[in-house]
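Researcher: Go.
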Amino acid sequence: MPERSLEAFEFKGPRPRTIGLLAILLIIFIFVWGSFVIIPAGHRGVVLWWGSVERRIMGEGLYYKVPMAERVIKVDVRVQPHPFKEIDGASKEYQLVKLTGMMNFHIDSSYVNDLYQKVGLDFANKVIDPAFNDFVKEVLPKREEIRKRAMSKLGDNLTRYHIIVDDIYFANIRFSPEYERAVEAKQVAQQQVETQRQVLAQREIEAQQKVATAKGDAESIQVEAQGQAKANDALSRSISPILVQYKSIEKWNGILPQVSGGAVPFIDLGKAEGMPFGGKK
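Model: Structure:
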């Protein structure tokens, strides 16, 4: 068997033609892959032509774009939360207030290209925070009033950037310790005044109840007296001399009285037994 030299087993690399073919296929793949873009749900595509913002906006789905010449920026148009940093405000009494909270917003999908061209994607730091700082200068005592006022004024300011404010939530409204103590003292005083008013109202009600009770008793006594007077009057009218004599006869037990009197002196009939005209025969 003939012996083979080491040169016969030398590894043979790819040919230059093969390398060129693979490079061409790779370029074609990149070219084809770069010609399509997918816009996911809840997003819009801002199209750039050699860096210049085009008027057309890509909606959700698969789109063709010119490789290298066109670039698509995906912008989220769903409702997004934006936390506010600690913001310094002032109350009506010129007391410093610290505010922290959250704002829900979304971008008007019809103007994402305009927003990207004028502000960029970092619009929250450039537009939202400064706008909120500008308009929350006077803080009202009630949180709900702060929320409504901030939504109204902040919404008017951000509309020009096609940013729509959905809602605002305040996590914390913190005043200075001195102001909080003053507010607490004021609330305690108001509660005490309200308590005194309730006590006074209760006393007035009790007094009115006593007056009503006394009036009712007086009216009851008056009605009873009037009824008794009417009864007495009817009774006095019903008594006549004949009725009195009849009642006396009803009560007589048949025994004549021992003493009789009138215009003549009284005579004890019991002692007249021995007299000729009154004694026994």
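Model: The helical segments are 16-33, 112-118, 123-135, 143-158, 177-238, 241-251.
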